UniProtKB/TrEMBL annotation:
Full protein name: Octanoyltransferase
One of the record's GO molecular function terms: lipoyl(octanoyl) transferase activity
Site (Lowers pKa of active site Cys): K177
GO terms under cellular component: cytoplasm
Gene designation: lipB
One GO biological process term: protein lipoylation
Family: Belongs to the LipB family.
Provenance organism: Flammeovirga pacifica
The protein's enzyme class: transferase
Annotated metabolic or biological route of this protein: Protein modification; protein lipoylation via endogenous pathway; protein N(6)-(lipoyl)lysine from octanoyl-[acyl-carrier-protein]: step 1/2
């Protein structure tokens, strides 16, 4: 019994793949990016199902792929599975007037905004390659953002019971959310992710109840520092912090 358990652990360790392909999608409409990450997500899940068949036949499993996508969306509101549609404060005519799209999607969480000046990160990882702990996964995403903000002298933290990254001193009566999180997992494969407000136009948050939280404000790095930031520079820092925390072997496919 002990020998069998040990061999399973050895086999799992042998097949863990910490290589992560980074792809920057540039500026892309939400629906296209959703389809893009779904295709990658489904391919990893399918690989895991095929691995189960291999091991049932006594064959060795093959390593599964991992991806990290960065993208910048045109103005869009997305509503998670547990969200309330009344948290969108615009009707269809209002959305058209503001030139904003709206999607109900399959991540957790409530409603949020994506738009220019915001870094949206979609880690599509097989957590069997890293650790099988969703709580730890979310905390690592938050920590990568907090370390990035620290690089710019912005002090940030967490609020008990709420996901995301917040600005404000301890016990501050008016904390400000600077990064939202919303993920989906299946068979320990992740999709969706984080949205960090860098130079985002915060007026668009006025058309929603952000993340279903009505009594807290939203902010951006530009708002906190009083000047715009270089998006490429911030992206580079965030990417490096994610790679360090997850112990990723990050590489970029120049063909994408």
């Amino acid at each position: 019994m002990e020998t069998s358990s040990l061999s399973v652990l050895i086999d799992r360790s042998r097949n863990m793949n910490k290589k992560v392909e980074f792809r920057h999608l540039g500026k892309m409409r939400y629906a296209k990016a959703w389809d893009y990450q779904t295709e990658l997500f489904d391919s990893i899940v399918q690989s895991k199902l095929e691995n189960r068949k291999r091991t049932d036949r006594g064959e060795n499993a093959v390593s599964t792929n991992n991806y990290l996508l960065f993208v910048e969306h045109p103005h869009v509101y997305t509503l998670g599975k547990s969200g309330k549609e009344e948290h969108l404060l615009l009707d269809q005519q209002g959305l058209e007037k503001e030139h904003v799209e709206f999607f109900k999607i399959n991540r957790g969480g409530d409603i949020t905004y994506h738009g220019p000046g915001q870094i949206v990160g979609y880690p599509i990882l097989d957590l069997d390659n890293f650790f099988t702990d969703i709580h730890k996964y979310l905390r690592f995403l938050e920590e990568a953002v907090m370390l990035t903000l620290q690089d710019y002298g912005i002090k940030s933290g967490r609020i008990d019971g709420l996901t995301g990254v917040w600005i404000g001193e301890e016990n501050d009566p008016n904390p400000r959310k600077i990064c939202a999180l919303g993920v989906k997992t299946s068979r320990w494969v992740t999709m969706h992710g984080l949205a960090l407000n860098v130079n985002a136009d915060l007026k668009y948050f006025g058309n929603i109840v952000p993340c279903g939280i009505s009594d807290k404000a939203v902010t951006s790095m530009e708002q906190e520092l009083g000047h715009q930031l270089d998006m490429n520079e911030v992206e580079g820092k965030l990417k490096n912090h994610l790679a360090t925390l997850f112990e990723m072997e990050l590489f970029e496919n120049q063909e994408n």
